[in-house]
Design brief:
540 residues; alpha+beta; Immunoglobulin-like; Neutral Protease, domain 2; 3 domains; 8-stranded mixed sheet; 5-stranded mixed sheet; 24% helix; 35% strand
């Protein structure tokens, strides 16, 4: 999900922190597994009401008399919410109860373990959220799905949790002046009577509901090219047609980079869409939505495209099993954008970004000293923070140094291959990286992912007769961190000398041979460590 583009980081962080509804859906991993959704939707210009017919195929994992789905009901007071008018299985009408955000369905025949059953739910209503019906920046009416984290059930009956994945069809009937984009490939586009058009999009790859969407608007659409046979298209508001096509065309080379580095693209097309998403970008599967102002004609959101395209592998295909492990999505996409920048523009450009991200993570720790995997969170919106993005991305950068270049890339590819189309926890990723590197990474993951904070260093040094005497102290509260630290001494005539020391305790005292009289000492000169600290004046 959601890139915080680095060039406009502060602005887009504000977008990211828009309040979201609290989580209502409880994982039903032991109860049922949705296999496929077909959502037939009618959109209108006359009203904000949508009409829906959901056909849902479910495999049941234990004997049950009834089961529940997530769908926000219309409140007694107010106009928003969905009203279910009928639920059927085959030709049989079923009893149901719909209250709050829960739809309980009572089949006539008990549900047996391993049994697959198909149900149809007819409903209508005005979405309070999830499907955003609003005017765009040019005053044109638009419809855009915006489901993260669990807002899909405002407009779709579903299991609204990342652990439950299903394939999906969207069959959308809308006034003919709209073009409709959705997940997967376009199977049908038919002009109907009454100036209506039916558009049918199908995604055969199982998805979490957070990235199942449609968008309907007046679009200008361009074929931007292809990467490894995958067609890439740009969908922008017609008022900014030329600028949007120019900006979004960068997606072709970005897509090729991740295919080359990580593995085959998991979907059959990539559409990049200007939209009303509340986020900087929303990585909907094969159908990425970007914020409206991402179209400038200056290609100044290349990192945003890279972040969201990286999500197609990490987050959409290999997905976190629950929201607490969101760093497996956001941290990977954050560092994925850095890897693309490094490949395209060189390491120096990536280092600029890393230094900025390090400061964001440090500043966030001062406000909230929490680990990356923070199981105290109850509002998933609170996970959209620099821990999940910048700190998690920097942890991947440190892991790259820890295991080495070859093992790092091999580990990313193997993790993706193993969990493609599945869900994972942090322990799963750790296990893969241990396999490819031959290292025990328990201490690494424990201190960087499950522990709050970072090393806070105080260094003192003195140069005497060809030797540099060094004292480094960890001054943060709690147990000391363990890590390699790069050190560089500089001389009066531009000389440099570097060393790496292993920090395993609160204090390190060491003497290093130095062939010139040092005048300056720099910690972590190559930008590999997440830390804060200062170098005190040299003692003479």
């Amino acid at each position: 999900m959601r890139l915080l583009p680095y060039l406009l980081l502060l602005t887009l962080l504000t977008l990211e922190f828009t309040l979201l509804p609290a989580q209502s859906a409880i994982p039903r991993l032991s109860e049922l597994d949705v296999l496929h959704y077909t959502f037939e939707l009618e959109l209108s210009d006359e009203t904000g009401q949508i009409k829906g017919l959901a056909t849902i195929r479910i495999r049941f994992l234990q004997p049950m008399e009834s089961f529940t789905l997530d769908l926000v009901a219309k409140a007694e007071k107010g106009e928003n919410g969905m009203t279910v008018t009928a639920i059927t299985e085959g030709e049989e009408s079923l009893n149901f109860q719909h209250q709050g955000e829960t739809l309980t369905i009572q089949p006539h025949q008990p549900l047996a373990t391993g049994e697959e059953r198909t149900f149809q739910i007819r409903y209508a209503g005005i979405p309070a959220d999830g499907l955003i019906i609003d005017k765009n920046m040019h005053g044109d009416r638009t419809f855009f799905g915006d489901n993260w984290p669990n807002r899909a059930h405002h407009w779709l009956p579903c299991v609204d949790h990342p652990s439950d994945k299903a394939s999906v069809d969207f069959i959308v009937t809308a006034p003919s002046h709209y073009q409709v984009v959705g997940n997967g490939i376009l199977l049908e586009e038919t002009n109907l009577t009454g100036e209506k058009t039916l558009s049918h999009w199908r995604e055969d790859v199982p998805l979490p509901t957070k990235v199942m969407v449609i968008g309907a608007a007046r679009f200008a659409v361009q074929y931007a090219g292809e990467a490894a046979g995958i067609p890439v298209s740009s969908w922008v508001y017609p008022q900014g047609r030329e600028a949007g096509f120019y900006d979004y065309a960068q997606a072709v080379q970005i897509l090729q980079f991740f295919i080359d580095k990580i593995g085959p693209y998991p979907f059959r097309k990539l559409a990049n869409v200007q939209s009303k998403t509340r986020y900087g970008g929303m990585e909907n599967a094969s159908c990425i939505f970007y914020f409206e102002q991402s179209v400038t004609g200056h290609r100044d959101h290349e990192d945003l495209l890279a972040h969201e395209i990286a999500h197609q592998w990490f987050g959409n295909s290999a997905s976190e099993k629950n929201w607490f492990h969101i760093w497996l999505s956001e941290g990977f996409a954050t560092y994925g954008a850095n890897l693309y920048i490094e490949h395209t523009y060189g390491r120096e450009k990536m280092v600029e970004r890393l230094k900025s991200e390090r400061q964001r993570a440090i500043a966030f720790f001062r406000r909230k000293p929490a680990p990356i995997v923070d199981t105290t969170v109850t509002d998933w919106n609170d996970l959209l923070n620099p821990n999940s993005y910048q700190k998690a991305g920097f942890v991947l950068h440190m892991l790259r140094r820890q295991v080495g270049e070859e093992a790092f890339w091999k580990g990313l590819r193997q993790y993706y291959a193993q969990f493609q189309g599945r869900n994972a926890l942090t322990s799963d990723f750790q296990h893969v990286m241990e396999q490819v590197s031959g290292q025990d990474l328990s201490a690494f993951f424990q201190q960087w992912i499950f522990r709050a904070g970072h090393p806070q260093l105080e260094a003192k040094w003195a140069y005497q007769k060809g030797q540099l005497k060094l004292s480094i102290r960890q001054v943060q509260k709690g147990e000391p961190f363990q890590f390699p630290l790069g050190i560089e001494a500089k001389g009066p005539d531009g000389q440099t000398q570097g060393w790496t020391v292993e920090i395993n305790s609160s204090t390190l005292e060491t003497t290093l041979d130095c062939p010139f009289e040092a005048t300056e000492l720099v910690l972590d000169p190559d930008t590999w460590l997440l830390f804060s600290g200062e170098v005190l004046s040299a003692k003479r």
